[in-house]
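ABC transporter permease subunit
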Amino acid sequence: MNQLNFFQVVGFGPNGWGLTLLGGAAVTLAVALCGMLFGMLIGTLGAWAKVSNCRPLASIADAYTTVIRGLPDLLIIYIIYFGGSAVLTWLQPLFGSSGFANFPGFLAGTIAIAVTSGAQSTEVLRGGFNAVSKGEIEAARACGMRRGLRFRRIVAPLTMRHALPAMGNVWLSALKESSLLSVTGLAELMRQAQVGSGSTRLPFDFYAAAALIYFAMCALSTLAIQRVERNQARGLTARV
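Tokens:
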């Protein structure tokens, strides 16, 4: 790989693909963030179901996490994308249309990441809740805190403190999982690298550039997560 040609191809000059790759990176961040937010909502509900005393809800949450964690991420993407397309195609005649309907790639990616990260978040948040000292919860109850106030001031903050490192790993997994969404035609980073490599016949240049961008996003995410962890750990470490 010629260094000069590499920077010309992936740079921001008249023939460079830099803006296209950065646009793909923005789509990658957007779909990963949307999927992660919905995944945390699913994980919160799943963890609540697992720690509750309701056996049917706990069984449903167990089945969900077992099935999803046992399936490849790419297979889940295919099921959601092609399944959604099949449903839309079936519904089209009801609205006076016909033919094959494509399920939106961004929506399919958001749902796929939400489903997979939700299964991981369920176990992470369940473990974080179990790590909370029962004495702290009992002390809050003894002070007269109602269930909602107790959850908001005691249970939720302490659960997140214990779960935060693992939740950071879930986010990094979601960020990297987004590269699989290129199979749906979504114009994320990997898809743009594929298009660029096919147009210029310089696959190594584009995939190397994509690797650098993924590494930069993961590195910045790791720094942000570590900063939040230090902030959450204030008061736990004795000062010398």
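The chain has one domain: 20-232.
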